[in-house]
Design goal:
Keywords: DNA-binding, Transcription, Transcription regulation. The protein contains 12 helices and 2 strands. By secondary structure, the chain is mainly α. Strand 1 and strand 2 form a beta hairpin.
Length: 249
């Protein structure tokens, strides 16, 4: 059925079929695709077409190519960082403002805090507390404090056990890193105190207090942005790239 397809279109046929197999649950994280010679036989295309399809899937973060005697293509968790350049470009083209970012946070994060109160594990609390402690121990390190300030909210989202909220929180925080807001470095102790208030409410099982603490924190961050001498700007460089990777640790 693919005989008339040209190599460019043929590789997209393969990409689409593998994506569909993942969406349908036929392929899961950790599963291996058939060896290259078997893919050639199954799809009826040349080695060049198969390799082009695999490179496309690897670039999308859907597979990783394992080298060696028992190597091949393995389904993996997509890297959220791969979406950041597209989102940053979209922000530029649509003139997304920091006000819109804060408006989004003020609606989403109180819900995240409430769910985290209901669903967190001891490991979640330990990770959140560790992030706060790192900030307190490194108040003069602007980049580290910014990273931990954003990482805290990714960890908070993970405590909800809701994959969509985890994804949204991770992407928003990566966008904030790209905005290069420096205000956290100007008030690390205050941010750590606000984070601690959230964690304390979660530990007590007080969902309403967690919501209030998170909303107050969002308001304080918004005020700090408006008052900051350093402000913000869209950027994309090695420092921000490393900061976004550190969010996922």
């Amino acid at each position: 059925m693919f005989d008339s397809a040209n190599p460019g279109k043929a590789s997209q046929v393969i990409v689409s079929q593998i994506r569909e197999a993942v969406d349908a649950g036929k392929l899961r994280v950790g599963d291996r695709l058939p060896q290259e010679k078997d893919l050639i036989e199954q799809f009826g295309f040349s080695r060049a077409v198969i390799r082009e399809a695999l490179r496309t899937l690897e670039a999308e973060g859907l597979i990783r190519l394992v080298s060696g005697r028992n190597g091949g293509a393995e389904i993996c968790e997509p890297d959220p960082l791969k979406f950041v350049p597209a989102i940053t470009t979209l922000m530029r083209l649509q003139n997304t403002s920091i006000d819109q970012v804060h408006e989004t946070l003020e609606h989403i994060e109180p819900i995240i805090a409430e769910l985290a109160t209901q669903r967190h594990t001891k490991e979640d609390i330990d990770a959140l507390q560790e992030s706060i402690d790192i900030m307190l121990a490194n108040t003069t390190d602007r980049v580290l404090c910014q990273t931990q300030a954003n990482r805290f909210h990714v960890l908070l989202a993970r405590a909800t056990k809701n994959q969509m909220l985890i994804f949204l929180s991770t992407m928003i925080r990566q966008v904030i890193v790209r905005l290069d807001y420096q205000g956290v470095g100007e008030r690390p102790l205050k941010v750590a105190e606000e984070h601690q208030r959230i964690v304390d409410a979660i530990k007590k099982g007080d969902a309403e207090a967690a919501r209030e603490a998170t909303l107050d924190h969002a308001h304080q961050c918004e005020f700090a942005v408006r008052s900051s001498q350093t402000g913000y700007k869209l950027r994309n460089d090695a420092t921000s790239e490393q900061m976004t990777r550190n969010l996922l640790r």
